[in-house]
Each structure stands twice: as structure tokens, then as C-alpha cells.
Fold this sequence. Notes:
By secondary structure, the protein is α+β, with helices and mostly antiparallel strands. The chain has one domain (2-270): 4-Layer Sandwich (Phosphatase 2c, domain 1), CATH 3.60.40. It is 18% helix and 32% strand. The strands form four sheets. Strands 3, 6, 7, 12, 13, 16 and 17 form a seven-stranded antiparallel beta sheet that branches. The protein is globular and about 50 Å long.
Amino acid sequence: MLLGFGKNKIITKCEIGVMSTFEMQGLTWKARSKYQQDAILIENKVIQHDGLITKLYSHSEKEQWCVAVADGISNSPTADKASYAVLKALTQNRELDQYQTSVIQQYLVDQVAHQKNSFGASSTLALIENDGEQGFVTIQHLGDSRVYLFSQHDQKWHCLTRDHNYLEQLRESGELRAGENYASIYGALLQYFCADPLHEVMDFTRTVEYLTENDALLVCTDGVHDVMECGEWLPLKADMELRTWLLNMKASLVSKQAYDNVSMVLVRAKKLIH
């Protein structure tokens, strides 16, 4: 039996079930922006900080874990509260089925909508979770925060998600025209969480990915991919520490005078057992 996942990846049935561990580490940085409106989730902790790199964490294939980023939408009020709240929703009791967008949306409304000057606070969300399915991870997102795959097969980064914005909608419908200036609608989000009880959200866009040894996933906010497309990113060599790659990425963003908040969590599959 053959299963196809990711970029040009073919997996035989006998390969499934040999994954041992996932290692993960995150970085968040407000860059040149006045405020930090991003947040990251790692090890069931929500982190919102002007500049921080987390510890390195590791989980076996059978353990449940979730990493995520949220990007508070800057033209909404108290955007930092929105990004913090949508990630906090993911840490609640699993029996609440917190990975449904309707549950996260209601949590944001309950926690933020009635705070002073916070009605309408909005955020994106992208997450990677493992439910113990031996090498398979689930990717879910709403908005323009993205997930990328680094494939050991071709040593390249590949985007796995499509933004929920007007520009992407035009691209998918074939309506983008050469020579047109689309800068004014570049960030026109069509889907996001909002601290407004009348706001409706669609379901997450959901994909499942199978990781082979030393494959990696990066979940990140647009402060990363707006400045550097993934074709410019350094490869994640098998012997490179996650911390080194994250700090190299930050240095590249600094050199390009990144303005928007930068948040990312890197996850790598390690130690295949045969």
C-alpha cells in the first residue's frame, strides 16, 4: 500500500509506525513594531513577549501535543488580547473540543469582547497537533498565518497552507491579472477570529501530513513570510540545532529590516526506530 503526503513524498505501509520523537522550539519577537500583537503556544503555555526563544521540547509519537501561532490583527483594538485569547482557548479541557473554530470564537468573545475598548479585537491562528498517530500530524489554520514543510527528500521548504484573504481568492479563481497593483488589498483577510458575538467563522482548513526522519514543519505569522518567501530560507540540516536555525532566520529578518511582529515554532521528526 502506498500513501502520498507532502511534496513528492511516497510512503509505504511498512514505514508507518516507526517514528520515535518530535522536537520543537519557538521564537517570538516584536521586531521594529511598537507593540507585540503575536503570541505562540508551545508545551501548553501561551507566550507573548517582546523577544524570546523557548527551551527545546521533545515528545514521543504517542504523546498529544500542540504548537501554534496567533497574529493579532493590527487595525483591530487590543489585538494583543485577541491573539493571546485564541491560543489560551487551545489549552482548555480537550473534552470541550477546543480545536473547533466555533469554540475558539466563543472563548474569545467571552474573554475579551466585554473588556474596555476591546470589542472587535481580532486574530489569525495556525496550529500543528499530534494525536499519537505515529508520524502523522494535523495542520489547521484560519487567516494568513502559515505552515511550511521542510522535506529531507529535496532539501527545500514548501508552503502547506493557503491564506484566507482576498488576494488568494483572486488567485484561486484565476482572476489575478498581470501588471495590476494589488497592494491595497494585500492584507484583506476574509477569515479570522473576532471579539464580536455576531462574528461568524468558517471551519479550520485542515490537512494531515506524514513526517519522515528529519522532516520539519514551521508554523509562523506573516511577519516571517511577508519579508522572506520560503525559497530564501536556509535548509534545516539534520545535524543543525533548531535554535541555530531560528536565530539564523531572525538575523536574516533583521538584515531585511523586518517591521511586523515575528513568531514561529519549528517542529522536527527525529530518531526513526527500525
